[in-house]
């Protein structure tokens, strides 16, 4: 599977190189230079900052691509303003990393009016026109976590779910629905959803887990909608001296989670949703579009299951 991911990135690089070559000025004047804006909804989390860094790093490998990055700090109006500012700088295209944002009509409308291509990464907005999207199948990741827990916990038991929030977050819902599609239909298991959101962070996961432990001392597993919350939940479980009783399953393949899984702790599985891979593919896709190539509208990036047996090979992916 790692070879598949590498192949996807390599293919994107090759296509981008061909597109740029086709844009050479007559008489060998060199490849056309592009400026690509990166409009980030927020950069406060390691996943989103990693995505931004991967896009910028891939641009540097091209030799003819410059990036300009912005951070809206979680404010949709600020994101729209940042897009307007990027357009005023006459960028050739924009990549939007929407994070937990469900839609950005003002931003997409402004880009459309300017006649510029826009590539979405990770988050596909519920409404609005875009040129291309690259991201994971979040329901499939939740489903494979559920399958792993089902096979590992043969005796069944009570499984807690920690959500990132807000209630209408489509990525989180897809991940949880994937888990429920497996364990929710298995009579051996009882699912318990935490009443509060972990807000996608380690501290939030810790607080929510403490509340769950106070009401459900008989838990056998915890599923978190991302690794950061699971790392916090793991701290709470350790403090409660229940590491031998409760295993954890997460999503993203965050480096800290992979190290914990590799160490053979009670963090036993996650699903790869690599910002590095997605970011590189997004930059390549954008350059392809600018070079006139016909590209896929939507591209699902593989999200292999990661356990102790496979964690080492993904640690630096």
**What is the structural class?**
alpha/beta
Low-pLDDT runs: 1-29
Please outline the major beta sheet. Answer: 6 strands, parallel
Strand order of the largest sheet: 2-1-3-4-5-11
> What Rg, in angstroms, do the CA atoms define?
21 Å
Portion in strands: 15-25%
pLDDT averaged over residues: 91
**What is the straight-line distance between the termini?**
12 Å
Total helical segments: 11
SS elements, strand count: 12
Order of helices and strands: HEHEHEHEEHEHEHEHEHEHEEH
Q: Which percent range fits the helix content?
A: 40-55%
- The coarse silhouette is elongated
Describe this entry's structure for a reader:
The protein has 317 residues and is of the alpha/beta class. The chain is built from 11 helices and 12 strands. The strands form 2 sheets. A 6-stranded parallel beta sheet has the order 2-1-3-4-5-11, sandwiched between helices. A 6-stranded mixed beta sheet has the order 7-6-8-9-10-12, sandwiched between helices. Helix 9 links the parallel strand 9 and strand 10. The radius of gyration is 21 Å and the shape is elongated. The N and C termini lie close together (12 Å). The N terminus is likely disordered.
């Amino acid at each position: 599977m790692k070879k598949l991911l590498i192949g996807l990135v390599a293919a994107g690089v090759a296509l981008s190189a061909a597109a740029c070559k086709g844009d050479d000025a007559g008489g060998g004047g060199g490849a056309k230079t592009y400026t690509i804006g990166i409009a980030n909804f927020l950069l406060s989390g390691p996943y989103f900052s990693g995505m931004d860094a991967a896009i910028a790093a891939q641009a540097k490998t091209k030799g003819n691509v410059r990036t300009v990055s912005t951070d809206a700090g979680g404010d949709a109006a600020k994101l729209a303003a940042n897009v307007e500012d990027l357009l005023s700088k006459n960028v050739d295209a924009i990549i939007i990393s929407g994070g937990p944002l469900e839609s950005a009509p003002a931003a997409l409308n402004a880009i459309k009016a300017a006649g510029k291509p826009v590539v979405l990464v990770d988050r596909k907005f519920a409404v609005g026109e875009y040129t291309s999207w690259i991201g994971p199948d979040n329901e499939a990741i939740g489903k494979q976590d559920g399958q792993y827990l089902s096979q590992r916990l043969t005796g069944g038991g009570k499984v807690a779910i920690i959500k990132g929030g807000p209630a209408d977050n489509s990525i989180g819902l897809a991940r949880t629905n994937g888990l429920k599609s497996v364990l929710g239909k298995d009579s051996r298991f009882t699912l318990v959803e935490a009443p509060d959101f972990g807000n996608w962070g380690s501290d939030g996961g810790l607080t929510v887990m403490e509340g769950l432990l106070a009401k459900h001392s008989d838990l056998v597993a915890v599923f978190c909608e991302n690794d950061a919350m699971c790392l916090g939940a793991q701290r709470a479980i350790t403090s409660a001296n229940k590491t031998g009783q409760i295993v954890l399953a997460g999503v993203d393949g965050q480096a800290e989670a992979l190290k914990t899984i590799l160490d053979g702790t009670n963090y036993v599985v996650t699903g790869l949703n690599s910002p590095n891979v997605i970011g590189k593919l997004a930059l390549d896709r954008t350059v392809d579009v600018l070079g006139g190539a016909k590209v896929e509208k939507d591209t699902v990036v593989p999200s292999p299951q990661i356990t102790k047996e496979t964690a080492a090979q993904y640690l630096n992916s």
